[in-house]
Specification:
This protein is α/β, with parallel strands linked by helices and 161 residues long. The protein is 26% helix and 29% strand. The chain is built from four helices and eight strands; from the N terminus they run βααβββαβαβββ. β2 (41-49) and β3 form a beta hairpin.
Length: 161
């Protein structure tokens, strides 16, 4: 049975193993640590089963625009990928963003994957970003964000990813 919860300090070692194995590098683990240390994390969830940690999702506050969040990293234990765990984590994170009255959530990733959750790639909004426009998706929560023309300012830790 899959359980979702917030991380605790003793989750750091299994979380680092999960992120490094899922991405094949340590960049995402370093990103999570730096986002936490800088106070940029808005929400973070772990998925676990009886065998331990199986997934992770992080929402961080953008420096600008105010009230906007960035989704990522999203990771699932390699042997559990393709079972819907990542999808459940993304849906749950977006629900929590709405409940927290975020104005919008942005993601950098595969449009085919994230489009399933309502992220719009190449829509009416014009998002200036450090990341390629074709991979930058917007999940508008507040109505005015659907057609916003804004420069996205990610917290400093994203510059190192």
């Amino acid at each position: 049975m899959l359980r979702l919860r917030n991380p605790k300090p003793d989750d750091d070692t299994p979380l680092s193993v999960l992120l490094v194995s899922a991405f094949g590098q340590a960049n995402e683990w370093t990103l999570v640590q730096d986002l936490r240390a800088g106070g940029h994390v808005a929400d973070e969830l772990l998925a676990e089963d009886d065998d331990g940690l199986v997934g992770h999702v992080c929402l961080s506050r953008l420096d600008a625009p105010q009230g906007w969040l960035a989704l990522g990293p999203v990771a699932v234990r390699t042997e559990d990928q393709g079972k819907g765990i990542g999808s459940e984590l993304v849906r749950y994170a977006l629900d929590r963003a709405r409940q927290a009255h975020a104005k919008a959530v942005v993601v950098v990733g595969d449009p085919n994957y994230y489009g399933r959750f309502g992220f719009v790639f190449g829509g009416p909004a014009r998002l200036q970003s450090l990341y390629p426009a074709e991979y930058t998706g917007l999940f508008p929560i507040a109505a005015e964000t659907a057609s916003a023309v804004v420069a996205l300012a990610y917290p400093a830790p994203f510059a190192d990813v």
